[in-house]
Amino acid sequence: MTRRTEWPDSPAEPGGDAGSGYGPPDDASAAARGAAAGDVEGRSGRRSRGGAGAGSGFGEGAGRRARSGTRSSGSPSSSRAEKGEPRDPVEQARNICLRLLTGTPRTRKQLADALRKREIPDEAAEEVLARFEDVGLIDDAAFAGAWVESRHHGRGLARRALVRELRTKGVDSAVIDEAVGQLDPDQEEETARELVARKLRSTRGLDRDKRLRRLAGMLARKGYGEGMALRVVRQALEEEGEDTEGLDEPF
């Protein structure tokens, strides 16, 4: 793999945190976004026009109530109305998803959690999420593949750490297995060697066992197994002239 996409240490979660995107959307992504927006907006517009009759609340009495300055009930729906947001739940769901996806890839679960937090009805949320999947705005497999590539090359994370992170994003286990399967074992070990080489200088002057614990602990936090960590650290210490006798045992 040649393209490396950087992901932040604390990836954004649904609800408006800082983004961690793939970068500016390409033309195909922009077209898909427009298709999703147009399709859902068209249906929500028809629903709104169909329900604007006698029960719409725009009669003389409603006008007097509006002019009287009656306070809202403080419910989420009245709060959204005061902010000028659409009342139709499908349109609300569409707008929320588009905002969260702007420059920032999200999994389906992340978006579903955000819609639930905003009290969007399940039926409306499912309609919008399914449509966004159809046009490619939600693609958990692409998300997982890009996440693995970026977090391995950018942060040096090993398979175990990547699996844990993707699980917290709600990615399906089969999709996770396929994504982490792109990491070659030799590539993973080479990344571990690079991590140790960068950290090695800061441990000079310490006794051998302390250097071992510090370097191996760093690899363990990044998801590397005990056997690989010990082998890589031992070889690095040997290259610096350290006596590694007895370091074959687990640390």
Write the layout of secondary structure elements.
Layout: H1 27-50, H2 60-67, H3 76-82, H4 89-101, H5 108-117, H6 122-134, H7 140-155, H8 159-168, H9 173-180, H10 185-200, H11 208-221, H12 226-239
Helix pairs in contact: 1-4, 4-6, 5-6, 7-9, 8-9, 10-11, 10-12, 11-12
Describe the structure.
The protein has 251 residues and is mainly α. Helix content is 61%, strand content 0%. The protein is built from 12 helices and no strands. Helix 1 runs antiparallel to helix 4, helix 5 runs antiparallel to helix 6 and helix 7 crosses helix 9. The longest helix is centred in the first third of the chain and has 24 residues, at 27-50.
How many runs of DSSP E, i.e. beta strands?
0
**What is the makeup of the main sheet?**
none
Distance between the termini: 33 Å
β-sheet strand percentage: under 5%
Structural category? mainly alpha
In round numbers, the mean pLDDT is: 76
**Any idea what the radius of gyration is?**
26 Å
Tally of contiguous helical segments? 12
Shape: elongated
What would a concise description of this structure say?
The protein is mainly alpha-helical and 251 residues long.
